[in-house]
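Session log. Operator J.P. requested a structure for one protein chain; no other inputs attached. Running the standard single-chain path with C-alpha cell output.
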Amino acid sequence: MMMDLHELLADARPDRLRAIRELPASEALGFALRRVLYTDRDANVRAAAARRIAAIDPSDAPEPWLLDALADRSPLVRDAILRALSRCGTTKSVPALRALVEHDQMWWIRRSAIYSLAAISGAAELAAFTGALADPFWRVRHAAVRVLTVLGARDPEVRDEVLETPPSSTLTFLRSSWGPAAIEAPTRAATLRSELPPALLDPDPAVVTARLATDRDVTPRALVELLCDPHTALRELAAERLVATGDTAAFEAALDWLEEPRIPHVVDTVHYLLDHLGDPASELATRALARHDRIGAGRWAIGWVVATRSESLYDDARERARRGDDSLRRVALPIVDTDELVTWASGAAGSIPKGALVDAIAAELHGRRAYDALARLDGTGHPRVRALQIDARARRESSDEGSRWSEVDAALADPHHGPRAIAARWLVRAGRIDPASVANDLDPTVREAALSGSIAAPAAAAAIHDTDPWVRRAAMRTISSAYRDREDVPAPVVDATCIALTAIDPWLRQQACGIALQDDRALGLTLSCLGDRDEMVRAAALDALEHLADSDARVRALVATDLPSPARAMAYSWLVRRLDDAATELARTAHAGETDPRVLAVLAGAAGIEPPVIARAPHDRIERAPTPAPSTERRPFGRAGFTVAPLAISGAYDPSTRALDAAAAAGVDLYFWEPGYDLLTRFVRSRRDRVRVVTGSYHADAASIRLDVDRALRTLRRDVLDAFLLFWTRSPARVDPEAYAVLDELRREGKIRAIGFSTHHRELARTAIEASPWDVVMIRHSAAHPGIETELLPAARAANTAILTFSALCYGRMLSGPNAPSPSECYRYSLSQPGVTACISAPRRYRELAENLDALATPLLPADRIAALREHGAGVRAESQRFNTLLRQPTRDAAAAAREMLAAELPPSDGESAPRRLPTASQARRSRTRLGGPRRR
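Structure written below.
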C-alpha cells in the first residue's frame, strides 16, 4: 500500500521513523516534517525529521524552520538541526550558531555548532573558532583546531590572526599542523594543594568511592573537589555527604563550579546538591546575590528565589539581575515589574541570544495578561512575540465589540506562519472572515487554525481533500463536533464524510463513523467499516449503528449489497442480535443466497443450519534447521574451561538485530554487554544457550559488585555470567587480593565462570595476574599500541590468563594515512599475537560489522603484513602522543580538577567524538562564504 503522510502520526515510534525515511519528497512532506520537528513527543523522531527536512530541500527554504526548533530541549535534536543547517544554512543562522559554540552545556552540541558555523561562514567567524580553543572540553577544542587547520592551510592572513591569540598548548598543536613547530611540554598553572586525604587521591574513582563510603573524616571543603569527577557514583556520594555536613562555606565553594557550565556533569551535580539543602539555601542565596563576580552563582540564587517565592530576597534578586547579563535577567522575569520587563526587552544584550530574552519577556507579559505592555514590545524579527501580541489584541477585541480589529486583520499578511495562524483562528471565531478565505494559504498551520470553531464547519468539508494530514484531521474534528447525531447534514458535509470513511488514515475513518447516517451512501460505508482492518474503526462503526434509531430495515437492505465479506459477516451478526424473533427468518433467507464461508458461518447458527466445512489448503509446517555457522577457529578462554571464536562484538553502538544475527551466523559467540545495550539484551536473551557474555562493574565495594552481578543475571535471564570484569581499572588497589576474593566467592557460588578486570595499564595488569590467578584481562592493543606484546602477553601465557583486546582501530586513526590497513587487518594484527584470546569490535553500523567479520575467516596475518602494520602504527602512535601532549591534556582526576577550578583554571574533560568530515584546504579560501566552497543551488 502506498505510504501516506498520515503515517507520520502513527502511535509507534518505529512507524513514524520509517515514514520519515521512506515518504516521497514533496512540498507537503516538508510542511509535515516541520510539524513533526516542532511537536513530536519523541526526540529520535524529531531528530530524524530535522535530517530529512534538509535532505528533501537542500536550499535555504527550511532554514527558518530549523532555527525555530534550535532551542529544543533534547541535545539529540539540536545536534541533528545543526547538521542540517550545515547543508542549508545561510548567514542568518550565524548568531544562533555562535551562541551555541559559546554557551551550550552539551559538548557535542558545541562541537557540531563549530562545524556548522565553519560550513556556513568559514574564516568570517575566526573569533568564534579561536575562542573555542579555550573550551573546557578537549573534543570541542579539537573541532576548532581542525577547522582552523583547514582555514589557515593556504591563507597566511588566517594564520597570522590566529597566532595573535594568547599562547596555549592547543595553539602550539594548531601551529604545528601548518608546518614545523617547536613542541614543548605544556606548563600547568600553580594550583592549590588538595585537601583530600591521601587514601582518596587514588587514580581509580571506584576505589575512591568505596573508601569515601567508609571514611567519615573528610572535610566538607575536600568533598567539593569531588563534585566534578566523571564517575557518577563518586559525584553523587560526595554531594550527599556534603549536604549532610551543613557547612555553608563549603556550599559557597561548590557554587564556583557553576561559573563554567560547559564542564560535563558539574552543573547537574551542584544543582542536585543545592536542591537538597533546605533552610541553609536561603543564607547561601543571600551570599550569592551579594557577589557580582559570579554569574553562575547569581543565576542559581535568582532561580532559587523565584522557585521558592522568597519575597524577602526579591529586591536583592532583582538588583542582581539588573547588574548582570541577559542570562540572569531571564531567570528573574517572574519577579520583575512589568515596565522594567519592557525596558529589558528593548535593551537586551549579553550571554544569550537577544531573541531568547525578548521571547521569554513576551511570554511572561502574556501570562500576566499585561496586554498593553506586551503591545509595546518590538516584534520585528521576533515571530513568537508577534504571535503573542496578535493573540493578546484579539482577546481584548473579543471583549470589546466597539474596538477595531485592524492589527489582527493585518497579521494575515505576516511573513511567518505563527502570527498568521493566530490571526486566522481569532478572525474565524469572531466571524470576521470566512475560513475559505485562507484555505489557499501555502502554510498548513494557517489552514488548520482557520478550521477551529463551529463557524468553520461548512469550510471543513472542502478541507477534507487537503494534502496535510493535520489539516484533514482538523477538518474531520470540526465536522464531527458540528454534525454528529444531526439529521440535517448538508450535502457537502455528507460528501466529505463519505470521503473520510474511505480514507487511508484510520483516524479519519473512525471519526467519520456516525456522521450523516441518514444518508444511505454514508450508512453503507459505515457498514463497510465493520470489517475494517483497524480495530478502533470497527468499534466506532459498531457504536454508530447501536445509536441509530430505526436502522434495522435500512441496514437489512444494504447488507445484501456489495459489502466486503468481513463487513457483511459483522453486519449480519449485528442484525441477528437486534431482530430477536425475526432473526431465524433473516438468517435462513440470507443463507440461501450467500456463498462466502465466513458469512455462512455467522448465519448458520441463527438459522439452525449445520455450519459449512471450510476447506483449507493442506499445510505442513516445515521445521527449518538453523544454518550451521561456518567453521571458525576456537580459542580456549584461559583456564575458564570453554572456548570462543576469536572476534567478539560489543553492543556499545546498539547494533541492529540483523547485524547481531549476521555476526552469529558468521560464528561469533562472545558478546560484550553493559546495562543499556537494549538490542543486545534481547539478542542474548533469545540465544541464552548459544552465546557467551562478558560484562562487569564500575564499583569497587563488595556490596555494589554483588548487586551488579545479580542485576546482570536478572536482566539477561541467565543462571551464570561467562566473564565478569572490574571495569576501567586504574590503580593496584582496584585489583588487590581483597577485590579478587570478592569475585572468587561469586565464582564459587556459580554465578560467574571467569573473573577479571579491564585496564589500559600494562604494568598494572602484569603485576595483578602474577599476584592472583585472574582468569581474564581486557586491555587496549593495536599496531599503534603494541606494548602488551612484550610486557603482558608472555606473563598471561604463563599464567593461562585469557586476554581480550580492544581499540584495535585506535579510534579510527589506524585507518587513515598512506597505505592504511583495512579494519579486518587491524583485528587480525591483534589476533596474530600469541596469547590473545579474542579481539572486541564495536561496529556502529551493519557495513562496519560486515567488514570486521572478515577477520574470522583468516584470523592470522602473514609476517610481512604484521611488519607493515607495525610501521604504520608507529606513525599513528607518534601523532597520538603529540595530540595527547598538546591538545588532550590530562582530563580531570577529582583532586587536580578541583584545584584548578578553585584557582580559576578551567580544565578540559573527556568524552566521545564523531566529527564531521571537513573539506580539503584548497576549498577553504577566506574569500569564500562557506568552508566547503560556494553552495550549489
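Operator note: Strands lie at 635-636, 643-644, 647-650, 670-672, 692-697, 721-729, 752-759, 776-780, 802-806, 838-841.
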